Design the sequence.
């Protein structure tokens, strides 16, 4: 196992609202190895996008990172001075944003957006380099002279990937990069992201809610619920034998080929982040819940197969397997 390229420890993000404090991300910790692809999944409001944005310190008020560290190259992104943070963003950790439709500047050509990025990091930017970057994501060099509105959704998302990898970052944070695209283009964009990431040797944290897409893309998966990582481990192990009841229900809710009739959902709704239930936040929806579940928050449990699970009965399930 090589040294992690990114270390996240006890990350906590809160949002101040008129009804109180929403605990969006609670004690999230994980390491990322060079070249590794980690998928963060969960329902809306589970904290996956907030976690991803916090990795780059992009949480805007009323949100606030109130604790934890995100270390890359020995520098803590959360505590870094503004100048150091500017040097890290784009060059060492870069974002492929959600909704490429709005991520690009509508009044600038694509070439100018590349030039601005390189200039912000004091690096030269040639037309040949822009053409090379566009080609790396399957786009014609002529795209450089176009404005964003002249490109399709898939092309814009590819431009965002090319911008994210332009300075050869060690970590790429991809926030639902395919959510606004149709199924065919989704697959093409994911393949492009995986290929450029491999060529670069960069690690990826990809946020998504589609377990099927994650299964094809990620090496490891982190399942989030109510702002906490409830299961983290190898993607094949998690899909073959999920140890957290929420993970199992997420996987069971995936439609199969030829499936007819009513699809299986997860009963109940995600808890309020303003006042999450006591104990395990999943207990009101959990078919496995026991008396301890509404009284005590399950601690993260390290299983022998390298997985980390937050469930009072995870060890029992591992012993029985
Ligand atoms: Fe279900 Fe209890 Fe495990 Fe929470 S701790 S997931 S309520 S069994």
Sequence:
């Amino acid at each position: 196992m090589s040294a992690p390229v990114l270390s996240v420890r006890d990350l906590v993000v809160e949002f101040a609202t008129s009804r109180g404090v929403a605990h969006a991300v609670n004690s999230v910790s994980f390491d990322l190895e060079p070249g590794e692809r980690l998928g963060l999944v969960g329902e809306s409001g589970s904290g996956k996008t907030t976690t991803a944005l916090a990795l780059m310190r992009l949480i805007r008020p009323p949100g606030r990172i109130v604790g934890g560290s995100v270390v890359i190259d020995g520098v803590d992104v959360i505590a870094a001075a503004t100048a150091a943070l500017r040097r890290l963003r784009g060059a060492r950790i870069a974002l492929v944003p959600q909704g490429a439709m709005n991520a690009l500047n509508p009044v600038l050509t694509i070439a100018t957006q590349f030039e601005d990025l390189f200039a912000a990091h004091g690096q030269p930017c040639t037309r040949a380099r822009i053409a090379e970057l566009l080609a790396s994501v399957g786009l014609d060099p002529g795209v450089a002279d176009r404005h964003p509105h002249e490109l399709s959704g898939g092309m814009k998302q590819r431009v965002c990937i090319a911008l994210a990898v332009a300075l050869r970052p060690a970590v790429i944070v991809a926030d639902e990069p395919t959510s606004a695209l149709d199924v065919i283009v989704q697959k093409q964009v994911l393949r492009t992201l995986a290929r450029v990431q491999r060529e670069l040797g960069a690690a990826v944290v990809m946020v998504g809610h589609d377990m099927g897409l994650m299964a094809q893309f990620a090496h490891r998966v982190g399942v989030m619920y109510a702002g906490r990582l409830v299961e983290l481990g190898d993607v094949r192990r998690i899909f073959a034998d999920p140890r957290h009841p929420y993970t199992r229900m997420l996987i069971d809710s995936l439609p199969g080929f030829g499936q007819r009739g009513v699809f299986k959902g997860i009963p109940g709704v995600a808890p309020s982040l303003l006042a999450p239930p006591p104990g395990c936040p999943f207990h009101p929806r959990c078919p496995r819940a026991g008396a301890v579940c509404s009284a005590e928050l399950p601690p993260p449990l390290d299983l022998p197969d390298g997985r980390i699970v937050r469930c009072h009965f995870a060890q029992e399930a591992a012993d029985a397997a």
Summary: The longest strand covers residues 20-32. The chain has eleven helices and twelve strands. Residues 244-245, 280, 282-283, 286, 288-289, 293, 298, 311-313 surround iron/sulfur cluster (CB under 6 Å).
